[in-house]
Write a structure and sequence with these properties.
The chain is of the alpha/beta class. The protein has three domains: about 200 residues, FAD/NAD(P)-binding domain (3-Layer(bba) Sandwich), CATH 3.50.50; about 110 residues, FAD/NAD(P)-binding domain (3-Layer(bba) Sandwich), CATH 3.50.50.60; about 100 residues, Enolase-like, domain 1. Helices cover about 30% and strands about 25% of the residues. The strands form five sheets. Strands 1, 2, 3, 4, 5, 6 and 17 form a seven-stranded mixed sheet that branches. Strand 21 and strand 22 form a beta hairpin. Helix 1 packs parallel to helix 9.
Length: about 450
C-alpha cells in the first residue's frame, strides 16, 4: 500500500476547511491544514463576523435618535470610526487565535503557507516543501469580483472596507446583492453619503419581490441614492483625491471612495487543478458530486469554491459531511432544501423557502398571507418604518413553503420559524400556536 505523509491535507482554513479538518482528526485521521492568510476564512476574518459587528455599531445611530421619546437625553454624542474599527479588528484577532488553538488541540498540523496541487496526492508549499496525502480537501472559498472597467484599481472591495483609515464623506458602492446593501446601510448610518449603483433595475435578486421593494423604499427614505440600470464606464482620480465615476444612463458621480460589491468568484486560480485532473466550471468553481468529491477520486472540495450555496453554515455542513463520510464511517449528504438566509441591511431581511414568484411557478395554486405593521418600538419613537411578514402556502396541502420577513430582528425570529418550514408544517399548525405577546414574532401565528 502507498504511504502518505497525511491521511488528509486541507487547503484553506475557512469555515468548511476548519470543520472538516477538526472532525477528521477527531475520527483518528492524520490531518494538516494550509492557510496562506489567517485561520478563520472569509466569514471570521473579512466577512460575516466583522460585518455584523459594524451593523451593531451602525444601529446605535438610530437608537440614539429614538431614545429621546423613551425619556433618555444624550448630549454631546459623537461617533469615532477608529474606535469601532480597531475593536472589531481586535475581535477578529481573538477569533483567529481561537480557531488556530481549536485545530491544534485536536492534533491538526496548521501550516501558514500557500499550498498548490502537484498531482492527485501531492501538495507543494510556497516554502518549497512537498508533502503527500491520501485525501486532499480544497476549501479555499471565494474572493470579491472586481469589474474590469478603466480605473478599477482606484476602488476597494469589502475586504478593505474594514481597514479604512477614516470614513469617506461620499462613497459609491457598486452592486445590489446582500454585501452591497449591508455596507450601504452601515456607512449611511455612520453619516457617509452613499450612492449605490447596479447594472439592472433589481436589488437582492433571488429574494421575494415584496421584501426587495420594501427595503428599496426604506433605504431611499434613509438617504441612500440608488442609481439603477447603470454600468461602469470608468473611474478617474481627480487632483484633490476625489474620484469621478462615469456610468451609463446617469450623470457622473464625484465621490471619495468606490467599493465593489459585485459578487464573489471561486478562489481556484493557480491551485494546480490541472495537475491533479480536477475539473471546474465556466465560473471557476470546482465540479463536485453529492459527496463533495471532484473529478479526481482523491480530491474533494467544500464551501464557496464549489459555487453551490455561498453561505458559511452550508460550508460547515459540507465539511462535517465530508469528514463523517470519508473518515467517520457515517456517510451522509447535505440537504440543500429550505436553507434560511439573511441580509443584515437596515432594517434586516430574512427568508426561507420559495418566494411568491417561485411558488407560483412550481406549484401553480398558492395562498399568500401578509402582515404589514409598525413595530411597537417604532410607534413610540415616531419612526414611520414598517415591517412586512409574508407566508407562502401550497393551496392544496396548506403546507408552508416560504417565509419572508423584513423588519427589526427578522433574522433572529426566522431561525426558529425556519424549523417549521423545514418540518413541512401547515398554516393551520401556525394558527394553532398561541401568540407570544407583545412581540413582533407573534405576527407569524396571526397572519390573515
Amino acid at each position: 500500500m502507498a504511504s502518505y505523509d497525511y491521511d488528509l491535507f486541507v487547503i484553506g482554513a475557512g469555515s468548511g476547511g476548519v470543520r472538516a479538518a477538526r472532525v477528521s482528526a477527531a475520527h483518528g485521521a492524520r490531518v494538516a491544514i494550509a492557510e496562506e492568510y489567517r485561520v478563520g476564512g472569509t466569514c471570521v476574518i473579512r466577512g460575516c463576523v466583522p460585518k455584523k459587528l459594524l451593523v451593531y455599531g451602525a444601529h446605535f445611530a438610530e437608537d440614539i435618535q429614538d431614545c429621546a421619546r423613551f425619556g433618555w437625553h444624550v448630549d454631546g454624542c459623537r461617533f469615532d470610526w477608529a474606535t469601532l474599527r480597531d475593536n472589531v479588528l481586535a475581535e477578529v484577532d481573538r477569533l483567529n487565535k481561537a480557531y488556530t488553538d481549536t485545530l491544534e488541540s485536536h492534533g491538526v498540523e496548521v501550516i501558514l503557507d500557500r499550498a498548490t496541487l502537484t498531482g492527485p496526492h501531492g501538495i507543494r508549499l510556497a516554502s518549497g516543501r512537498e508533502v503527500t496525502a491520501k485525501t486532499i480537501l480544497i476549501a479555499t472559498g471565494a474572493t470579491p469580483h472586481v469589474p474590469g472597467c478603466p480605473g478599477h484599481e482606484h476602488g476597494i472591495t469589502s475586504n478593505e472596507a474594514f481597514h479604512l483609515d477614516a470614513l469617506p464623506e461620499r462613497m459609491l458602492i457598486a452592486g445590489a446583492g446582500y454585501i452591497a446593501n449591508e455596507f450601504a446601510g452601515v456607512f449611511n448610518e455612520f453619516g457617509v453619503k452613499v450612492t449605490l449603483i447596479n447594472r439592472t433595475d433589481t436589488i437582492l435578486r433571488g429574494y421575494d419581490h415584496s421584501l426587495r421593494d420594501r427595503l428599496l423604499d426604506i433605504s431611499i427614505k434613509k438617504g441612500i441614492d440608488f442609481r439603477l440600470n447603470a454600468d461602469f464606464r470608468g473611474i478617474t482620480r481627480n487632483d484633490d483625491g476625489s474620484l469621478t465615476v462615469e456610468m451609463t444612463n446617469h450623470e457622473p458621480a464625484i465621490v471619495d471612495c468606490v467599493m465593489f460589491a459585485t459578487g464573489r468568484v471561486p478562489n481556484t486560480g493557480d491551485l494546480g487543478l490541472d495537475a491533479a485532473g480536477v475539473e471546474w466550471d465556466e465560473k471557476g468553481a470546482i465540479r463536485v458530486d453529492d459527496d463533495n468529491r471532484s473529478t479526481c477520486e482523491s480530491i474533494y472540495a467544500v464551501g464557496d469554491v464549489t459555487n453551490r450555496i455561498q453561505l458559511t453554515p452550508v460550508a460547515i455542513r459540507e465539511g462535517q459531511a465530508f469528514a463523517d463520510t470519508v473518515f467517520g464511517g457515517k456517510p451522509h449528504k447535505v440537504d440543500y432544501d429550505n436553507i434560511p438566509s439573511a441580509v443584515f441591511s437596515h432594517p434586516p431581511i430574512a427568508s426561507v423557502g420559495l418566494t411568491e414568484a417561485k411558488a407560483r411557478e412550481k406549484l401553480g395554486s398558492i395562498k399568500v398571507y401578509q402582515s404589514d405593521f409598525r413595530a411597537m418600538k417604532n410607534v413610540l419613537a415616531g419612526r414611520n418604518e414598517r415591517a412586512l411578514y409574508k407566508m407562502i402556502c401550497d393551496a392544496e396541502t396548506d403546507r408552508v413553503v416560504g417565509l419572508h420577513m423584513i423588519g427589526p430582528d427578522a433574522p433572529e425570529i426566522l431561525q426558529a420559524a425556519a424549523v417549521a418550514v423545514k418540518a413541512g408544517l401547515t398554516k393551520a399548525d401556525f394558527d394553532q400556536t398561541v401568540a407570544l405577546h407583545p412581540t413582533m414574532a407573534e405576527e407569524l401565528v396571526l397572519l390573515k
